[in-house]
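COMPLEX REQUEST
Ligand: iron/sulfur cluster
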Amino acid sequence: MPEKDFSFKSDDINIEKVIDDYLEEEARPKKIGSYYPSEIGMCIRRSYYSYIIPKETAPSARRIFALGNNLHNFIAQALKDSDQFQSVEEEKPIKIEYADGSTSFSIYGRIDDYIVTKSGKRIIIEAKSTGDVSKVNQPDPKHVMQIMLYLSAQAADYGILLYADKKNLELRQFRVDYDDTVNKKVINRFKDLDFHLRNNKLPPPEYYVDDKKVWECKYCPYFSECMQAIANGD
Ligand code: SF4
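STATUS: Structure written out below.
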């Protein structure tokens, strides 16, 4: 029997292209004075560039986000279906206003899931998808900063950082209690970002000078701009 030809022909429907078109989004310029909890744990210079030089998210990263969103939707559905809770709110918006003598700004976020148990405990859940949950022994400090802001803005007994493995849905959860010292540090990071943006000053290359974080630079969309700045002495 002759071997069948299963190869893809150039005029066949390309499903990968259909998916990339579906996920396509325009780069939306961000406004100085409007900040986001999910970004404040990242390199301050990278956050700064994202305001000054908005870039579209790469198709490969958009697909990863889409997978993560699907996983979050699944977790939210499971929570809603459970009879352990009085209520489950998904994507609960929060807004934090900050003002001092020199500046003011707003922080906008969305709590993945806000649940109230039958016994009245209020819990904030922030879900993160990961490639290998067995390697997650501690919550990522970026994620602790994010949930700390939510805990400062929304009445809750505690938070849960939930890591879900994209391969097999294995889960690992960490409890996060509100800590005022950590929250003040997070607000100071926003103030730092705000100061650099309003004064058009490039922040230091935070991750590049940190031995534990420099590996993330190679995935940074502003790698070339940052390296050029470093070469110029900034
Ligand atoms: S390349 Fe590294 S140091 Fe530079 S902006 Fe990106 S993450 Fe920050």
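REMARKS: Helices lie at 15-23, 44-52, 59-81, 141-153, 180-198, 223-231. The mean pLDDT is 94.
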